[in-house]
Amino acid sequence: AQSVTQLGSHVSVSEGALVLLRCNYSSSVPPYLFWYVQYPNQGLQLLLKYTSAATLVKGINGFEAEFKKSETSFHLTKPSAHMSDAAEYFCAVSPNSGGSNYKLTFGKGTLLTVNP
Amino acid sequence: ETGVTQSPTHLIKTRGQQVTLRCSSQSGHNTVSWYQQALGQGPQFIFQYYREEENGRGNFPPRFSGLQFPNYSSELNVNALELDDSALYLCASSSVDRGIETQYFGPGTRLLVL
């Protein structure tokens, strides 16, 4: 069974500082990996996805993530935080089975706060 | 905007009642998935429908059921509501690009069971 662990339920950074949100996965084969963002009282918005094409994935809003198979990690980074980045971030995994890879398994989320 | 809409936005029910939540997917997306997100938790997979048939199910009891219609709309039905069913319910429609499925989420329906 696949699982996702997000280290740190709450991360606080200053505006302009580096954002680093951690995600580790457990899977027998490298899965597909996703980062979603959820603003208050809204649904989930896709930030970026890893599908084995390239280990460094660039997403929207200046975010990127690097897939490291040896560390089973897919950490999300942004060089300079903006106040508008304050939200909850979810890492998710789906099977890389070549067939219907439907089920997304989510981590518990990391709440990012950005201080002025 | 993902092009996925859900109704209603909020709903209050009492224990034992039944509820129907609705989702309208993006045109051309044949797959819809439903998730339950309890407060402070990540979304949990309920089930997925593909071309009007259930295509996979998570660890939810049979009182959670669904329907998908040819016009890219779908429903989640929950019978015999329990207090623990209080949550945000999200639907997601899927696009497939080079064999890889990506799910796009609607804004959710927040259900409160009293």
Structure description:
The complex is a heterodimer of chains A (116) and B (114). Chain A is mainly β. Chain A has no helices and eleven strands. In chain A, strands 2, 4, 5, 9, 10 and 11 form a six-stranded mixed sheet that branches. Chain A has a five-stranded antiparallel sheet with strand order 1-3-8-7-6, with no helix packed on it. In chain A, a hairpin with a 5-residue loop joins strand 6 and strand 7. Chain B is mainly beta. Chain B is 0% helix and 57% strand. In chain B, the strands form two sheets. In chain B, strands 2, 4, 5, 6, 9, 10 and 11 form a seven-stranded mixed sheet that branches. A four-stranded antiparallel sheet of chain B has the order 1-3-8-7, with no helix packed on it. Chain B starts with a strand and ends with a strand. Classes of the chains: A mainly beta (116), B mainly beta (114). At the A-B interface, strand 4, strand 5, strand 9 and strand 10 of A face strand 4, strand 5, strand 9 and strand 10 of B.
| Secondary structure: helix percent of chain B | under 10%
Major beta sheet summary of chain B: 7 strands, mixed
Would you identify the regions of chain B where 5 or more consecutive residues have pLDDT less than 50?
A: none
Structural class of chain B: mainly beta
Termini separation of chain B comes to 32 Å
Rg result of chain A: 14 Å
Count of individual helical segments of chain B:
0
Specify the biggest β-sheet of chain A: 6 strands, mixed
Separation of termini of chain A?
41 Å
Q: What fraction strand of chain B?
A: over 45%
- Helix count of chain A equals 0
Helix fraction bin of chain A: under 10%
Query: What is the mean predicted local confidence, pLDDT of chain B?
Result: 92
- Give helix and strand order of chain B, one letter per element, not per position: EEEEEEEEEEE
What is the strand tally of chain B? Answer: 11
